[in-house]
Each structure stands twice: as C-alpha cells, then as structure tokens.
C-alpha cells in the first residue's frame, strides 16, 4: 500500500500550443510547473498531493493566490493565449487510478469547446472597470437640479421641529428615489459608451466602495490586450463629471470570459 | 486613463477573479470539499481588508502593528534593504515556520551579505526572517532543506533554489568573519529512533506529525501517527514511546470533521478514528497535516478487509484476507507464500 506523493494535478490554465517546456519552479510552494499537452493545446500544471491548499493563515493564502496568478501570467507570455482557472482546481482520480487519465479524458471531451474559447480570447485581455460615486456630492446635485427637492429643502428651513420631521422624511424618500433613478440612468449611459470600445462585457456585482463611495457599476471588459486607449478616454470623460471616481484595472487574463 | 495591475492596489480585483471565476471543469474529476469553502469568507474579507488599508496609506501603521517590523524604510529597493553591506548571494527560497498546529513554508528572496542572512518578501515589503551571521551556531543539510541552529537554540529550516550553494556560501561568509560553525548533527534525526516499535513483517504505510486526543479528556498531546499494515499507532513525543494503538481489524471507520478544539483553537480539522474496544465503540482524534491521506488509508484498509475474490483453485468467493492468511475454506488451497511459510515451520 504505497502512497505516491503526487496523486493530484494542480491546474493553472489552458494554453494554445503544446511546446513541451518546463516553466521552472515558479508554482505554489515552489513546485515545478510543467506542460500537459493534448493535441494542439496544453494544460499548465504542477503535480501535487490529492487535497486542496487550505489554510487559515491569510499571508500564506495571499501568497498562494499571487503565485497562481504569476504562473498564469508566465504562461500567457510564453504561449500567447490562456484560459485561466480558479485557484485550487486540482484534478484527482479514484483509488488506484491515475489523474493523468482523467485529464486526458477531459481535454479530449472538451477539446473543441476549449479551442473555441481560446480563439475567442486570442490577443485579448480582461480589464476591470468600476465606477463609483460620492453619494453626498450626488445628493447635492440632485437637490439642485430637481425643482421639487430644491423647493422642499427651502421649505424645510422654515418649519418648526414637529412638521420638520415629516418634511425630512419626505425629502429623504424623494432623494432616494431620485438617486436610484440617476444611478440607473448613469449606468445605462456609461455602459453603452463603454460597450462600444470593447468586445464583450461581463457585469459584476457592485461591491462595497471604500471611503464613503458607492459603487455604481462593476464591469469586466474583454478588449484588445494593450490597446485600450479609447476605453481610457471614455473613462476619463466619465471621471470628469463631479462626484465620480473610476477604477481601471488590468490587463488580466480573461477569467470572466471563459 | 491607464489601467493598473499594481498588486498593492488591485489585490481585491485579483481575488475576485482568481477565487471566483475562471474556466469551469466538470466536478467529478476535481477535488471538492463538500460544504467547506476552500477559502473562508472571513479570510477573503481579511485579505480585502489589507488591500483597502494599503490604499489609504494605513500601510505604515498596520505594518508596524501587525508585522512588527523595525526600521520604517518601506522602499522596495535592495540597496536600502542591505544598508552598507556587501551582497554575497541572492536566490529564491523559503523558510519553515510552525505555530502550534500550523505549519508553512514562507517563500521569498534569500539575501546573504557579509553580515546577515535574510529572507525578504518582495510583494509586500516584508522581512520574513533574518539573522546575523554571528548568531549562527550550526548548519546541517537535511534531506531537502538546510537547517540552521541559532545562538538561542532555535532551529530554522531553509529551502532554496540551490541549497548546497546556499550552505557553502553561508559557511564561506562566516569564515570570512572569523566565525566558526558546527557542522555535526546537533539534534538527532527524529525518525531513526522511533521505528523500533515495529514488529516483524510490519511495515509503515503512512506516518506524520499528529496531535492526539484520546478518551475525550480534551487534552491534545503532540506526537506522531503511524499507520502500518497491522495497526494504527501513535507515538507520544514526551514519553518517547507508543502509547496508543488500534489493530486494523478493530478499526470501524474514520472521518474528518471541523471542530472547536479549545477556546483558542477554533474550527480545526480533526481526523477521528472509530474503533472497537472491548465491545464498545470508541473514538480517537488526531490533528495533523496528512489527514486526508490517513482517511484514505483507513478507507482502503476497511474496503480491503471486506473485499472478496474467487479462490484460484475452486472459484468460491471468499474474503481476500481470509484467503491469504488461512487459505480457502472450501478446497484447502493456500497461497504460495503461505505454503512457503508452512514449509519453513515444518523444516
């Protein structure tokens, strides 16, 4: 009952090409990263134990994740096109079987689909675009631009505390509605302008913004790798508007488009 | 506007992608840890929290508080890292640290200068390990690592891209300082002593450092777990002997569970072995690194026990172990090995 020390195959990404090279000991825990070819494509892997990388140590996990990304980046540079996988995707096999068999079977079964995906993202990269706004600034603008709200505010100033409370509530509700309306309008507007400059967009969940900012939109865009000048210009225009902040990140391997 | 990928400001963006997205592959060939998320929600929040703090210039305060670094020079440049020392060697490597049950190899860049040896994590400007050369009392090569014995009796394990070269270079650097190092094994290799308890024909199939809690007294003791072809046994570090064992026939099953072990050790993974003891069912609990391997081993033991096969002579189904140990109950066939042993006894 001998146990082999490598019954798992850690997957980093799928690449276009089958150059059988070793990418070196750049993997998680300094593992040797190698190429697992299948016809015209390959998987970038390292041999590991058949259980996941888990830890409650934040530092450790952070390093693993950064290493995972570094390997994907290296593969991207070496092979040109990658289909990245999430961290901790490990192929195993049943008792006595070889995970390499499972790998082959999977690559064989999904071969056409994988080639199609590789084609779809060839020469492209993923860029993150997040638009945030400062609600305080936005509230002021809305208050000034919407006559109903502007008037209500004026009236509020002269009311005694009893009735003032009711006015305040009404004002709050109006503002909330207007904010939501504006958010929707801005979203649609920005989305349309951005869509024109990219091949594809994946809408993500708006996350908690930092520093009292609210996130309006969280997009992942598929665009030509290295050529996002026009997109950059649109984002600059957006940021020029008062109260808006844009976060533009990338180029990432196309995680959202595979 | 230009896109950025600076790790310091885009860690959350990276995490969102690397943890949640990517190519999906059919679940039956990959590991799934049912119900237990691979990266806990709290962990992700903690990682994200780090990134936010970086963004708001709180890095410095946070660094000093949590990482306990002295010297506030936060630049990435090697020159400031090394002050006015002469750099002798630089290579990537990692240092091993253990905090109770947690064990980890922390990676970084090893720098050997004419005065110090250090391990630096570039990504987040962190000094993972450092020592003055004069504090190194001993140096030994251990399997795949270099072991440094420091002045305060601390043992530090280092791995590197070229361990031999690192060892040689450290020795050289120390000699140049007029320092003497001890190259003998100051601490005995652990394994040699412990396998004496094995009986004839017994072989160890799995072993590993494991804390053990027997008889639910809630006391966890450090030691080593051994699974052999005859039994599961546990060696207690403090008494330096086997203090617990379960013959494989008595093992009923095993499971890995997440439990709170103590007010401090919360949500630890524990490996439970259920066994028969004097017509009672009991549980022994262990905690260590190779738990999944052990679970598989126990699983194999149990399924192997129940496995049946046809007797090569008469074709009657029988339990494999029975066939091998006692021969076929129907036709009297014995395996060649059993025959040889019988002959030996007769002779």
Offer a few descriptive terms.
heterodimer; A: 258 residues; alpha+beta; B: seven-stranded antiparallel sheet; seven-stranded antiparallel sheet; 35% strand
CATH topology of the largest domain in chain A: Alpha-Beta Plaits
Q: Approximately what portion of the residues of chain B adopt beta-strand conformation?
A: 35-45%
Overall form of chain B: elongated
Tell me the major beta sheet of chain B: 7 strands, antiparallel
CATH architecture of the largest domain in chain A: 2-Layer Sandwich
The overall number of domains of chain A is 2
Distance between the termini of chain B: 91 Å
What would you report as the Rg of chain A, rounded to the nearest angstrom? 25 Å
Note poorly predicted spans of chain A. Answer: none
Largest interface: A-B, 71 and 56 residues
The share of residues in helices of chain B is 25-40%
What is the string of SSEs of chain B from the N terminus onward? Answer: HHHHEEEEEEEHHEEEEEEEHEEHH
Number of extended strands of chain A: 9
Q: Please describe the biggest sheet of chain A, giving its number of strands, its sense, and whether it closes into a barrel.
A: 5 strands, antiparallel
**Unreliable sequence segments of chain B:** 33-38, 50-77, 99-103, 185-193
In angstroms, what is the radius of gyration of chain B? 27 Å
As a percent range, the share of helical residues of chain A equals 40-55%
Distance between the termini of chain A: 40 Å
Question: Please, what is the average pLDDT of chain B?
Answer: 74
In CATH, what is the homologous superfamily of the largest domain in chain A?
Answer: ACT domain
Tally of separate helices of chain B: 9
